[in-house]
Amino acid sequence: MNVVKSYKARSTQGKSLTFLLMIIIGYIAGIISKLMNPAFMSAISDKWFVLFIYFLNLFMVLLDFILYFRNAHLMHKYAPLKKAHC
Prior knowledge:
The protein has about 90 residues and is mainly α. The chain has four helices and no strands.
């Protein structure tokens, strides 16, 4: 849902690149933690959905991260046009 809002907004307002990076690092750390946990790995066939959710959330945050740069480019590209119309 947040990815759709970012795509439609075409703006970086309300987004923090630092926060997005911290979330990405957190998901990667969580995935590594699960993969290195022997108790989790021994029951992976019963708990596969946990890793699936981690990867799904990481994918969504990575999309939002990419959209941040797309939106920053669009804001920079169209900013002179908005000033000219004022």
